[in-house]
Amino acid sequence: AELAIVVNISNPVDNLSLRDLIRIFKAERQFWGGKPIHILMHEEGSWEKEIILKKIYQMSGEELNKFWLGKVFRGEINNLPMIIGSANILQKIIRQVPEAIGFIDASNIGEGLKVLKLEGRLPGDKEYLLHE
Question: Are 124 and 106 in contact (CB under 8 A)?
Answer without folding.
Answer: yes
